[in-house]
Amino acid sequence: xxxxxxxxxxxxxxxxxxxxxxxxxxxxxxxxxxxxxxxxxxxxxxxxxxxxxxxxxxxxxxxxxxxxxxxxxxxxxxxxxxxxxxxxxxxxxxxxxxxxxxxxxxxxxxxxxxxxxxxxxxxxxxxxxxxxxxxxxxxxxxxxxxxxxxxxxxxxxxxxxxxxxxxxxxxxxxxxxxxxxxxxxxxxxxxxxxxxxxxxxxxxxxxxxxxxxxxxxxxxxxxxxxxxxxxxxxxxxxxxxxxxxxxxxxxxxxxxxxxxxxxxxxxxxxxxxxxxxxxxxxxxxxxxxxxxxxxxxxxxxxxxxxxxxxxxxx
Amino acid sequence: xxxxxxxxxxxxxxxxxxxxxxxxxxxxxxxxxxxxxxxxxxxxxxxxxxxxxxxxxxxxxxxxxxxxxxxxxxxxxxxxxxxxxxxxxxxxxxxxxxxxxxxxxxxxxxxxxxxxxxxxxxxxxxxxxxxxxxxxxxxxxxxxxxxxxxxxxxxxxxxxxxxxxxxxxxxxxxxxxxxxxxxxxxxxxxxxxxxxxxxxxxxxxxxxxxxxxxxxxxxxxxxxxxxxxxxxxxxxxxxxxxxxxxxxxxxxxxxxxxxxxxxxxxxxxxxxxxxxxxxxxxxxxxxxxxxxxxxxxxxxxxxxxxxxxxxxxxxxxxxxxxxxxxxxxxxxxxxxxxxxxxxxxxxxxxxxxxxxxxxxxxxxxxxxxxxxxxxxxxxxxxxxxxxxxxxxxxxxxxxxxxxxxxxxxxxxxxxxxxxxxxxxxxxxxxxxxxxxxxxxxxxxxxxxxxxxxxxxxxxxxxx
Lengths: 314, 463
Prior knowledge:
Chain A has 314 residues and is an all-alpha fold.
């Protein structure tokens, strides 16, 4: 088990290094230079600014500095916002995205498990049909359309109640988060519902279920204790990739609902060609995702003994 | 099968030596024929197939048959909903001389504005209002609102104040549309007092100035004045127009070309690359396989959308370029490892299969092995993964264009259409609705077709 964790940790570190390098190379392929947007300046001023950002050094030297700073956890200073540290930007905006993501993930997982279990229980009857139809809709409609519909829904709801119970956009209170989190989690919820359904159906025909039924265990107990617990396992494996989907999916939701998260900030930084912010955010997100997948993998090893055995045997 | 079978005694005679026994023949079906037969029985998948063909015809054949112009702007019809045709009144656009009245002197609170009425017919070139003078007023303020004003603080857009002391009229020529407006007029005194307002509901009809009607070729340029007061047919926009007055239908057709092109060509390219890469890794095996798959794992670990955006920035889009190629390249560069993994897994499994070992034993060359055994057996899985990759690619294009990081305007794509439609979603929902609907239908069709193909080909999607 420890060897497995160490191996995964090592490959995680190399992956983060790869992401950082790819980001660096990508940003240096950008035509033009970061000071192109600025006003015309005297050559000596330009030289000063270049020296401040280390742009006067050769590329490999810049790469060395970039990597060194990265190791120290220092992402540099923003190009467009004077004296604002990228670390501060991430520290300020990431918790917003993370909170939204966690809420979306909770909604998605809970919804996925409940709906998936329901479809399996009512297999081939109308609840199954209705839920699976909604699932197909949910994976076929782009997320920004759901975001717009979500806003429209808020408007209609407020109109119906006659008071502004749910804010249309912005951030701060729980009521701000509700609809964005729902919209954000919708795609993942649909995916998890599908997964849960097939996993439940697989479990239903397992021997231990038949045994339990034969020895007269109550149907409710079979459902919760035998079926649900075993069917949930595959859902946990995809939580890692789901976190990735939800964090990046946050872009649109943050844009539409005007939420001050890191995703919206990233899009802004790209539009303004803010090199350090783009690089810092990409590396940070990449590292975050790698760590998340790692954590889920290790957790899964603890939860499902079969995986542990298979992994250590391999 | 339901035909009654009649037997005669000859049917029961024993066969002579040398006679042929009855042979039960079933047409021999290849794997693909069999899969096609199973797919045909899946009604949802076949409907989806027709739908996809229909969408391809819509985007690629329709513009060959008829002339659709996604670029030209129809400034007389901006953000108009779908319709079979609109008529417009030809009017003179000379400014109104107006109505003037003397104002009696008066001190103390102003009495409310009265007698607010339309002067002549209201149309989208001008709405002319006039009212009774209020004693003591030194001027009037005119407001326009889309909803009925609920109070003096809710009168809507301030259009202006009257300029001369005795002026009791106002002509509104500001971006009028053929929909409902509430005009409110308020008098004010030298001391700054304001009177109660009067409100009038006006629904202007669509009109076009003589000059612009001639310019657009709607009326002849000889004696254009004779057409004033007549109705002319405007250019027809079946699905309405967007916020710049461009034909929605044409935008959607050409947008479909972009979206479907990226959505189909990108997966095709990265699936081919993935097959070659994964096949090679699986076939060579050992160290090479390990190194190759390690690299693929790294590429998979890159945060997809972030790098799509990064690539687009890195490649840059020059003026006049559509931005389709950079997106295509970025999609291919970032997406191939999934297919590579899948194919490698399949090849590893196949290598152990008895029929491959037998072929190897009998001296089949690697060329023969690959083309005869490996590729055909991998194709099923590859086809299914290709079908499922298309919706993802279409979504990615739509998403990036939606946040303004996709194709460069004015290139239409369904995602870009959505981006433009969002701005006026509440007042003109059709501008977002149509492209969003097309994206959804396309993605739905490919998803259902993918499901059908997976069942028909019995492909286990395990890497």
